[in-house]
Design a protein that fits this description.
2 domains; 5-stranded mixed beta sheet; binds 2-acetamido-2-deoxy-beta-D-glucopyranose; signal
Length: 423
């Protein structure tokens, strides 16, 4: 009885120390790969830590609202609304989603574990999931082989990989090409030939998570649009002729509270497989190439609005061998992968400008938010309302669908946003 207890304690200790080691490793990777964000030259609205922002806000009707008038805060260049220059004091919030802990099919076997992908192969090949699939295909590592995998009705990718791996081994030792007996497998075997070629063994602990780095700015500047004043009908956008506005420039779409993000996807390697960069309602997937130490453009998506299709550069460079270098657009803080002028809406023509203003080495202050650990979640992660004042100074014809405002609603917070990677 006593030795049984001893065995139990030893196993427990091993479990604890291995999760601790994994925890340290994950935290290290999150820090090492936190981005270097260049704030734009002439930026007037800098980032801020959430607690200081909340000290200056009050909650009402599902909105966080400034305690004093927006106009007076905007005029006062030292008000909290203008944020702070990021030295080592402004945190970036890293939301961690660990795919292994969450996996329902974590199978411990003889000191090794294997995670099962529950998405069926056909689903996995859907076009919109390709960036993630590609990333996984490039570095598909399997730790241990479960010998009792009987292909059922829903054959998982993992099972396919396992079976085919056995076949490949067989074929190698017999010097001839062995076709799997099971017809279900053989069909998919041909389909996934490319994937299967990438299989290799790995001796490290499995590692599988994605992390979203969130940056917070107290205020986001809208865009100046050339308008013509038509009295009670309000102002109407008119095209600028030859770059000259013959009406009046008016700023639309300002808002209090601004969340911006970039996500990284890790699996088994000490570098991310993929990155998602978000600018306004569009975003781009990049794949990491360890040989060159750069991220390479893979695909892009428009989350909302048919007019948004910005051009993303082919490569994203890294600082100090890991930190992706990103650029926060002046005023709006949309994240771009290169300095310069970025057209992000075609109608009306709206541009973002970014460049080498002030560097923000975000890894100096990373605050970890873990989906699995309620204790490390700050209270504000529970807020589901809007992070800024309600819209104001809207067009007189707003009710007829001409919905443009000088100040728009604040955005929703982190828990309300969709994740760009799935496990
Ligand atoms: C501007 O803001 C700072 C910081 O909140 C405050 O101390 C100062 O009194 C404000 N100035 C004016 C003129 O309101
Ligand atoms: C946040 O909400 C959850 C569930 O609704 C609750 O268990 C938790 O205590 C809340 N956390 C804080 C800090 O209020």
């Amino acid at each position: 009885m006593r030795w049984l207890m001893f065995v139990f304690v030893v196993i427990l200790a091993q479990q604890i120390s291995s999760t601790l080691v994994e925890d340290i490793r994950v935290r290290g990777l999150i820090r090492d790969w936190a981005p270097l964000v260049w704030l734009a030259p002439g930026e007037r609205f800098l980032p801020l830590g959430v607690p200081e922002f909340l000290d200056n806000m009050q909650a009402a009707d599902n909105y966080l609202q400034t305690r004093t008038s927006l106009q007076s805060l905007l005029q006062n260049r030292s008000s909290f609304l203008h944020g702070r220059k990021p030295a080592d004091n402004i945190p970036i919030y890293a939301l961690l989603k660990n795919c292994i802990m969450n996996s329902e099919s974590l199978i411990p076997s003889a000191g090794a574990t294997m995670t099962k992908t529950t998405i069926s192969p056909s689903n996995n090949l859907k076009k919109h999931q390709l960036p993630i699939l590609n990333a996984m295909v490039d570095d598909f590592d399997i730790k241990s082989i479960e010998s009792n995998n009987v292909p059922g009705s829903g054959v998982s990718i993992e099972k396919l990989l396992v079976s085919s791996f056995k076949d490949r081994r067989l074929s190698r030792s017999h010097g001839s090409h062995v076709i799997p007996v099971n017809s279900e497998i053989s069909k998919s075997h041909i389909l996934h030939e490319k994937i299967l070629q990438k299989i290799k063994f790995h001796t490290q602990h499995p590692l599988h998570f994605h992390v979203t780095y969130w940056m917070f700015y107290p205020f986001s500047e809208g865009k100046a649009v050339c308008v013509l004043d038509l009295g009670i009908l309000g102002s109407w956008p008119i095209p600028s002729l030859g770059g000259t506005c013959f009406g009046r420039l008016k700023e639309y779409g300002n808002h209090v509270g601004d969340w911006e993000h970039v996500s990284l996807y890790f699996k088994d390697k000490n570098y991310p497989l993929a990155m998602y960069v978000s600018a306004h309602d569009a975003g781009a997937f990049y794949r990491y190439e360890p040989r060159s130490g750069t991220f390479i453009f893979e695909s892009q998506e428009t989350r909302k609005g048919i007019f948004q299709k910005p051009i993303f550069p082919e490569r994203v460079f890294t600082a100090e061998g890991s930190h992706p270098i990103l650029f926060s657009a002046r005023g709006s803080h949309g994240l771009w992968t290169a300095p310069g002028k970025h057209k992000f809406v075609r109608l009306p023509r709206l541009y973002d400008e970014s460049g080498f203003g002030t560097p923000w080495p975000t890894w100096r202050k990373v605050e970890l938010l873990s989906i699995h650990d309620k204790h490390v979640m700050p209270e504000w992660m529970n807020f589901t309302g809007k992070w800024g004042n309600p819209k104001s100074n809207c067009h007189p014809l707003t009710k007829l669908g001409f919905d443009i405002c000088e100040f728009v609603d604040g955005p929703t917070g982190i828990p309300m946003k969709k994740m760009n990677f799935r496990c």
